[in-house]
């Protein structure tokens, strides 16, 4: 079989649609940088469940700003690894954290930590 090129065959060009007006950006849908930044800050905020707050108050446990910063960084790290529910060991505390919701679900001090079983977690982070 011999392939021949037919030089007498005409190729019909495809018509191109003309653009009469340039594309306009709807200014109502634009979001400014400040709004995006504030949303990102709110999304990264850490919260505590009412159960956790009750446990912390019962045991006179106060978390320092440094501990909260460490906890927030540990949540970010667990989130980057795909964790959903994590056991976080911070100093003498065990905290069960919902990574997706960025919420500390419960807190257990070192005295109550002995002979305890933590369930429904998919990761552990030692801080």
UniProtKB/TrEMBL annotation:
<keyword id="KW-0966">Cell projection</keyword>
<keyword id="KW-0969">Cilium</keyword>
<keyword id="KW-0282">Flagellum</keyword>
<protein>
    <submittedName>
        <fullName>Flagellar operon protein</fullName>
    </submittedName>
</protein>
<dbReference type="Pfam" id="PF12611">
    <property type="entry name" value="Flagellar_put"/>
</dbReference>
<dbReference type="InterPro" id="IPR013367">
    <property type="entry name" value="Flagellar_put"/>
</dbReference>
